[in-house]
């Protein structure tokens, strides 16, 4: 029993130390979360682009276009996010458009700088030989 009494302070010290480290880690995580939330606006500009490709374009050609479009976020400041997918709607209302792309901007100015950017023009040169139809819709999100 006496031996247990000698170890009790050591056990308490270790427990308090671990609790203190956990508390500090929680505070750091909360600060990072608050910084992230402060950096993101409450509304964002979505630039939605819908393509259909020529029948002569191979799956490899289409993947080259997708990869080039995705890479624009690495070449143009202001593109905050990029998503894409292939139409899977059973409604049959896509009017032949097969691929959807969504770019997110935090301002009209960022989107407006993207449109004439040389990297965007270079992407257009890659896309051009394969493009059948295109539709573009931009909107500001509403929470």
TrEMBL record:
InterPro entries noted in UniProt: Dabb, Dimeric_a/b-barrel, HS1/DABB1-like
One family name in Pfam for this protein: Dabb
SMART domains listed in its UniProt record: Dabb (SM00886)
Source organism, top-level taxon: Bacteria
Residue ranges of domain Stress-response A/B barrel in the record: 45-139
Coiled coil (UniProt feature): none
Subunit structure as annotated in this protein's UniProt entry: Homodimer.
Record-given protein name: Stress responsive alpha/beta barrel protein
Annotated organism of origin: Algoriphagus chordae
